[in-house]
Structures are given as C-alpha cells and as structure tokens.
UniProtKB/TrEMBL annotation:
Superkingdom of origin organism: Bacteria
Record-given protein name: RNA polymerase sigma factor
MF terms (GO), sorted A to Z: DNA binding; sigma factor activity
Keywords: DNA-binding, Sigma factor, Transcription, Transcription regulation
Phylogenetic lineage: Bacteria, Pseudomonadati, Bacteroidota, Bacteroidia, Marinilabiliales
Amino acid sequence: MNQLNNINDKDLCKRIKSGEKDAFRKLFEKYAPGIYNFSFTYLKNNADAEELVQNVFLKVWEHRTALDSTQNLKSFIFKIAVNTIYDFIRRKNIEHAFEDYARLNYESKENNTWHSVIFEEMKQNLHKLVAQLPEQQQKIFQLSKLEGLTNDEIAQTLNLSKRTVENHLYRALVFLKKHFKSESFVALLFFYLFCG
C-alpha cells in the first residue's frame, strides 16, 4: 500500500481498471472527503451524503473497465457524483410529489400508508416491465435511469455507438409507457418523474 502513497491519478486509473483493490482503496481515501463535502452542500444531510459517497465509488468500481487514463480522474468522479446527486434529488421529488398528492386527496391519517403502498406497487410494476425488456435495453435503461449515466457514458461502458444507445433507450421507454398502468394521474406522475 505504501507504494501507492505518491501515485498519480493516471497510474491509479490504470491499476483500478485492471481490478487492483488497493489502488481503488487509495482512490477512495483521496476523493471520498471531497465528494462527501460536495454532496452535503446539496443534500444537507450527513446520512444521505455518506450514502451518496458509497454509491459514487460503487459505480466507479462497477464501471472501472471504462476508465480512461488520458482523462481527468477527479473530473470523472465528480461527474458521477453530480449525476448521482441529480438522481437522488429526482427520487426525493417523486416521493414528495406522492406525499403532496396524498395530502391533497386523502384527509385520513392513512396518508403515509397509502403513499408507501402505492409508491412501492408502482415501483414493482415498473421493475417487472423493465425485466421484460430485451437484455441490452434493460442494461441501457438501468444505466440511464437508475444509475444516472449519460448516453455517451453508456456507449463507452457497453462499447456501443451513442446512436445505438439512444435507439435502445427510446424503444425501452416506448414499451414501458405503453404497458405501464396509467389509469390514474398519480401513475402518470410516477412514470414521468421516474422515467423522464
């Protein structure tokens, strides 16, 4: 581990790309505090910021084969952090939209129960539909909508053209929109907030 103390980002990137866990640990030690502080300014909550740091570095590890030693590693990690923060805030907004809808439309004390049950039911419904997509569309949808990667990043990760990624994502969204139960306003709200 000592030999990694003065390693530059370019070499660190190459070692992580080849699966070296000590190099990844060094990367975490080097950038996790900055990601935490950056996240906290947006999320205003210690637990959320800590969870976000874990998610960012999990994504870095999962997509380590797509790392490019010629690019700025710090910028790459902070870009993942920005996408993850955006995704986190979007999910929170979905939950708040449901809470607001429940508050405005139901006066009983069962609001929270209603919100939880409906929200979870729609999430499960969407996940079941995603599981019906062809394998490549599933991967692309999950990387885009659940992990917050851009189309360029997905193309690089899956070794596809950006156009192919866009086509698969478009087809996935058409299928999901067609089959997602949208008899109610709240179902449409969920779909567009989650998949939009």
